[in-house]
Amino acid sequence: MASTSRTRTGRGRGRGRGSGSSSLPPPPSTLPLIIEEFFIVVYEDPLVKKELPKKFADYLDGQEPAKVYLRAADCGPRLWTVEVLFDGQGRMYLDKGWEKFAIAHGVDFGCYVHFKYEGDDVLTVKVFDETMCRR
């Protein structure tokens, strides 16, 4: 029985709170909001403007770029310039330039498009078909 209690005292993050331990992470409400990666699913015309997740738009709050630069993963250094629209209600859309990028990279109905924010208004993009295989 004594060995069981020894095992329990050394386990879990909650142990040692009363001793002033600083190894615990801060509560989730105090962690910074960092949205680096997200998916959109193409349910409608793949060539019209695309809405990005509200959490990502919120992350950019106050910066609201007029354009972003899309880089297709594993396709070299080429950047595609895409204009961005904000609707005043916290929603963000990829607009002019998206159509050319979508055609060049095979974005179609049922595709999953993965975005990774690299900073400096650059998003790396991977396109997956409806079977979740990379295009």
Automatic annotation (TrEMBL):
It comes from the Eukaryota. The keyword Chloroplast does not apply. Gene3D superfamilies: DNA-binding pseudobarrel domain. The keyword Secreted does not apply. GO terms for molecular function: DNA binding. Residues 35-131 form the TF-B3 domain. InterPro entries: B3_DNA-bd (IPR003340), DNA-bd_pseudobarrel_sf (IPR015300), Plant_B3_domain (IPR050655). Keywords: DNA-binding, Nucleus, Transcription, Transcription regulation. Residues 1-30 are annotated as: Disordered. It holds the Pfam family B3. It is found in: Nucleus. GO terms for cellular component: nucleus. This is TF-B3 domain-containing protein. It comes from Lolium multiflorum (Italian ryegrass).
